[in-house]
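INFO batch 0412 | record 1 of 1 | parsing
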Amino acid sequence: MFEVGLSSDVPRDGGEYRFDLGLSLLEEAKGIEWRSLSKSAGTELAPDQIEGFDGLLLWGARLTEQTLQGVDRLRIVARLGVGYDNVDIDACTERGIAVTITPDGVRRPMAATTVLFVLALSHRLLIKDRIARSGSWDERWAEVGQGLTGRTLGLIGAGNIGIDAFRLARAFEMRHIAYDPYVAPETAAAEDFELVELETVLRESDYVVVLCPLNEQTRGLVGADQLALMKPSAYLINVARGPIVDEKALYTALSEGRIAGAGLDVFDQEPVDAANPILALDNVICAPHALGHTDEIFLGIGHSACRSVLAMAAGEVPDHIVNPAVLEHPRLLDHLKERR
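INFO prediction complete | emitting tokens
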């Protein structure tokens, strides 16, 4: 039997999960059993919570080196999402544990979220909503939006989500540029966007969208010096991770009118403090790291993670492994041979 644990922090209403994660894929498979992990006192999983499991479906709980102390059976951690900064990748690799993510599940919902921010900012959506609700209709003449035709959409990170965002935005006839040192020129040519330096994205874009993963190279990537390169008429959108952008520097740029506005689905500290001054700015649209949360995204990431677990249970190498070096680990190789 291949035992699978689901981290207990998946949101519920009473005993029911708030959304469908497609766990029926596990329930219908032979030789698979799954159950929710016991609840932990904090955000970090403890060894006794995951011992006895072969696979783990991980939501937002932290899995550290300490979590893995004395844990020998676990062979896959399937992260429900694409960010994996809550997982100690090196510790997993050293123990022969594959870590997977679900880019196929988040691609379209998060690309749509990117375009949503662009449209909402360009049309002053929230400001006009407030004008309509307050009855101050004469103010509407002061809030003229910004047309998108001929403008420049610039991405910091042009992977799975970014490329799909470019595809969705083609109808607006914008120029598409991106900074991503991991994207091949052939990919950019095939998808009809320009690969440029980070400084070029910041200087020339009317909408700068942060879509790269959070790691040691990208933490604080967009700071005061980078924001100073942006046009006063430009907008910053962050749908990746809060710490990629220096939040204090962003507040200064926004409050002093150095850039036109921002769309933020993520923050440096989450949940965001209600006293955070960014929340009081009229030129910012905020969301609680949830703008992409739809039935589509939850079912998509659930199905993707379940497929990874089922592949491992069948002795197959799953898709979307973020630590490919683990495929040379003797423990994992032995597991794959035994399960085939």
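INFO post-check: The chain has a mean pLDDT of 95.
INFO record closed
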